[in-house]
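REQUEST FORM: STRUCTURE PREDICTION
Request ID: SP-0412
Submitted by: Lab K.M.
Chain count: 1
Length (residues): 101
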Amino acid sequence: MTKTPAPPVQTSWPASSARACPTLHFTGQVVQVVDNQLTFADQTGVQRQAMLGPPWWWSENGIELVPGDPIELEGFESPEHMEVDWIQNLRTPDGMPVWAQ
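STATUS: Completed
RESULT:
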């Protein structure tokens, strides 16, 4: 009895017609945080909304964003909202600018 060889494993994927989302970079100021939705004013004063990671992660790791805090962030537009890839609070927990450390 002869065994039929297994089909070859696909090692490359067909080209997709979908484009990668461009990275968006902002500096600005926190307006408010409700659950995992951040509202911030960008460097031109326009208020924008972005989705952060799960709220429990922020509290468990002692990360706090307070209205008025200067921030810098990068994210991308998804079909429903902007997603944050990374964010940096430019103020220390005791209220000092990070550059003054």
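NOTES: Confidence is low (pLDDT under 50) at residues 3-19.
Reviewed by: T.R.
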